[in-house]
Amino acid sequence: MSVTFKPMNISDCYYARLEIANDNRGSFQKIFHEDVFRDIMPSFKLGEAYISSSSKNVLRGMHFQLPPHDHSKVVFILSGKVTDVLLDLRPGQNFGKFTSINLTPDGNNLVVIPKGVAHGFYAHCDNSNLLYLVETVHNQASDSGIHWDGFGYSWPTEHPNTSQRDQTHPDIKSFQIPKDWYE
Questions:
Q1: Which residues contact 109 (CB under 8 A, 6 or more apart)?
Q2: End-to-end Cα, the chain, rounded Å
């Protein structure tokens, strides 16, 4: 597996384009190889994997897990096109800093997200499918988020299709950084 991880403007966040091998039978793509990811995620151990499927104009986010169930994750796009958005919630001078990248299966097609960074995305088309590899099993009590319109990012639409849950998240000004993230 040959991949070059490119740093984003939030520390420990990366994006990449995984190569796809195509022939007359179809395609093959290796999405994870422990040795390749070890340099940027040395302690990553897979706890759970899941797929989200979104229609055009769906916005999901900004999601993260609180300690002790917080996790790093790798997000791959399988189909469609999304604008993927990351928001740094870790203590320090970069608190509140955000970045985004467009993901497509044949372009930049993965992001690496460390603990303490919230994740969200906007689907530009129907059948926008993402695969998540995460370190911990989802824990409802640790599930948290920042309101999608509560931290200063300019989304591709002003009227996205969001869940009731995502509409009720607090803005970033109300967020209390967990003490475990200071260690």
A1: 16, 17, 18, 76, 77, 103
A2: 34
The 10s digit of each residue's pLDDT in 11-24 is 999 999 988 888 99
Task: Classify residue 173 by its DSSP letter.
Answer: G
Contact 119, 61 (CB under 8 A): yes
Enumerate the domain spans of the chain: 6-173
How far is residue 92 from each of residues 41, 49, 63, 75, 117, measured CA to CA in Å? 21, 30, 20, 25, 13
CATH fold of 6-173: Jelly Rolls (2.60.120)
Which helix (H) or strand (E) element contains residue 38? helix 34-38
Tell whether the torsion through CA atoms of 177, 63, 70 and 82 is positive or negative.
negative
The total of other beta-carbon atoms located within 10 Å of residue 119's CB is 21
- Distance in angstroms (rounded) separating the CA atoms of residues 52 and 29: 19
Contact in structure between 169 and 120 (CB atoms under 8 Å): no
Place of tokens 């319109």: 149
Residue-wise pLDDT tens digits, 112-125: 999 999 999 999 99
Q: For 80, which DSSP code? A: S
